[in-house]
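Entry 14. Two folds queued back to back today. First construct below, sequence then structure tokens.
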Amino acid sequence: MACFIAPVAEAVVVTVTKKIIEKKEREKYQVDSSQKQNQESAMETENNRFGTKLGWLAKLLWGGSFLLFIEHIWHGEIVPWPPFLTAMGSMEDTQAMLGEIATTGVSMAVVITVVWLAMIAVIKIKETGKVKEKKLS
């Protein structure tokens, strides 16, 4: 019915947080364009920045939410006239919709976040392996 609302809410929070963090990171890592070595090291650290990684989570959340939104339109659960959600037609349907958001929607948002955390963990493991290889060389 409206399970995509929970991931959308998380996506909004993550996107706003990402923008704030990226602004602070840009201020911290500003590089003088005349120094090429510093630019290259700045490019390497760009993928290591937390703002970039939050961007990945935002993309996962927005993408999944968009696909769910389209699926709900396809099944006639979202319509182009008010109240837009067919489940808001009666009190019983609205209660069922809120229950679905609280269970299914929150579960989907949690699963997406856990997958993102696993991605970050894998990247961290690979980065530590590269650092060890450089030290051995």
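Second construct, same run, same settings:
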Amino acid sequence: MIDDFYQLDPYELNKEDKNRLLMSELIELTRFHKEHCSKYSGFLEAIHYNENMVKGLEDIPFFPVRMFKEYNLLSIDRSSVFKTMTSSGTTGQRVSKIFLDRETAMIQQKVMNKILSDFWGKKRLPLLVIDTPAVLKDRKMFSARGAAIIGLSVVARETVYVLNQDMSLNTEVLEKFLGKYGGERFIIFGFTFMVWQHFYLELLKMKNKYDMSKAFLMTGGGWKRLESDAVTREQFKDSLHTMCGIGHFLDHYGMVEQTGCIYAECECGNLHASNYSDVIIRDYRDFSVCPNGSRGIIQVVSALPHSYPGHSLLTEDEGIILGEDDCPCGRKGKYIKIIGRMKSAELRGCSDTYADRVHSY
């Protein structure tokens, strides 16, 4: 199915076609992981899973995402592990460990490239990272944060880090980058709180004003901390637009447990599920499926996780499905709104985790 999907634009399939292809793949993945991961097999046995009873995506068993913090879950031989990813977490928290073989890592990278190229084109663009190069050198820091940077770096023409190791803004590097690429399209990437704290607030202090009107600003996570500091999403965007002319914003929702299948923000401010993934909203009381427009627990399904049983996960996030196949941007599929972490859930997003550390000092 993945090979078939590569021939399509990432938001091309309507509800009926997507559900048919995605359900077929998810049934196969459930069967595969049952046969190759003993702990996942035990989970399916405990809930009395019957493949013959699957009539739609909502019937695919949802595996609690927290299980990746409690157990090492993989459906491949240890000798085939190419890369181990970890989620973000504050000191003392357990983190998810995701085991990838080369095939799964390659599929994740290819799909993410396909999704992002739908927003800023297929041409390789220069990348300005609001972070320090140390994020890739310090293994304690290398988690979803480092993985996101590496994933974008693979498709970038050139990658430049604009923060020093002490997280101060390197204006010399910024001016050199803008002098070279400021007149063409380029990407700025950073986790939301870091963009605000170490980029915008530092630019605000300077006399020089920089033109970044050609930039696509890609962010993710951190809204909880910013909103607690009385910075709304609208204020975040307005402030950066006023300061340096940025008009293209690309926020996204994603998790290390389903790397590659990001839910990217369109021009209308909606987060979209691509051909490769989907969202189901579950009721808090009985886990029944909520209708569009109702708030509940987010379940995410993905066709990508082959080396570990992460194809259908019940997250610890709350959200709403706003619509399907009818977003004004023209992209097919569901589009969603993320409300945030459930009250009892740990703080785990990359940007929120970093912000939590900053505020604790």
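Quick look at the second one. The longest strand covers residues 312-324. The chain has twelve helices and 14 strands.
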